[in-house]
Each structure stands twice: as C-alpha cells, then as structure tokens.
Amino acid sequence: MQFHQSYAYEDFVQGYRPTERGFERVDGHFLRACDEAKSGPFVLVIDEINRGNLSRIFGELLMLLEADKRGAEWETRLAYQRPLEPPFHVPSDLYVIGTMNTADRSLALVDYALRRRFAFVDVRPGIDRPGFRRHLAERGLDEGGIARVLERINALNDVIESDARLGAGFLIGHSYFCDSTPVTDADTWFRDIVECQIAPVLQEYWFDEPAKARAQIQTLRAP
To answer: What's the whole-model pTM score?
Structure first.
C-alpha cells in the first residue's frame, strides 16, 4: 500500500464508510493484515510512508507497534470498537516495512516517536548489482552500452554524494533504466533518459549552480 496526504486512520485501521443504507464500519489495510498474521508471518509494505500524516494515520498503533508491546497484555481499545468487542493488540507475526525517499523534504514529518519504533536501513541504488547489468543485457544493450550506463551514472553519483548539500540520499538510482521495453538504439535510449528524466533532476539539485548542472548533464550526453 502507499500513503499520501489524504490518507487517514479510517483508511488504515478502521472507520465508517457510506453504503446504500447508511454507514458501515469497515476494517482498513492494517486490521486485515493483523488478521492474516494470526495464522502465520505476514508482511505489510507501506510505500512512501513519510508522505502521510503519521500521527493521524497510526493513532494508538504508535504504542502497539513496538516490539515489546505485541502481546495480549498490552491490548487496548481501538477508536471505533463497539463496547462488547474484545480489546485489540498487534500480532507478533506482523512485520511492517515502510519505504521512503530520504531526499524528500517531507521526511521531517517522521517524528522521533515513530522513528524509535522502526529499524532504519539505507538502500543504495543498484547500479553495480549483477541483476541490473543482466536487466540491461536482456533489454538489448551490448557490453559497451552497459558499461556506458554504469560508468556515467556512477561518476555522476560520486559528484552528488560529495556535495555537502546533497549526499547519499540524492543519488541517481537504477529505476530510471528499468522499463521493460526492448532497446533498439542504445544511444537514443540513453540520451532520452538523460534529457527527459535525469537532467531536470540535476537542474533542481543545483538550481543555484546552473554551471555545475550543465557540466554534469553534458558529461552524460557525451558520445
């Protein structure tokens, strides 16, 4: 699933939805995932976790998500539970993975209350991974074309990572090159990606240093 600015507790945990006869209480993705985890390990992946209002979305789950509060002894009542329904706790077999782009300025919304409930792992671009090289070969690039992509993007990333205002969170990733369409002209394909996708990003990175952006774009464009 994916968070966004309009996402709320009622979407994620539980809330009321209009029906033809009025309103009906509906379980959200999280409660359905908890039900799945009762019968074995279950993984819930939240893409763009930092784009939502996390306090509004998680509510009382900020406590229940903690690893040492997954048992029935920590159960509590959810906001929309009925009086006779049993209290709720998060199963120990539910694993929640949240992904985010650390270059996104909305990262500031991930407050320390939530940070200490997750282990953070940096995931660097897969430019040098064998799987990426294999993907490019399967799309039709020869060894020369593959080397060109790897060398130029790695060189660009060295510049980005060494920039004190940018750093590792702003590296150009392999996803720009992961379309599955066969490549018939490697030069045109690479040039189109540079012109239409990477160049605008670099111009934004160095908006106050246009000469630096132009130099890096020109290096990518070189024959």
So the answer is: 0.80
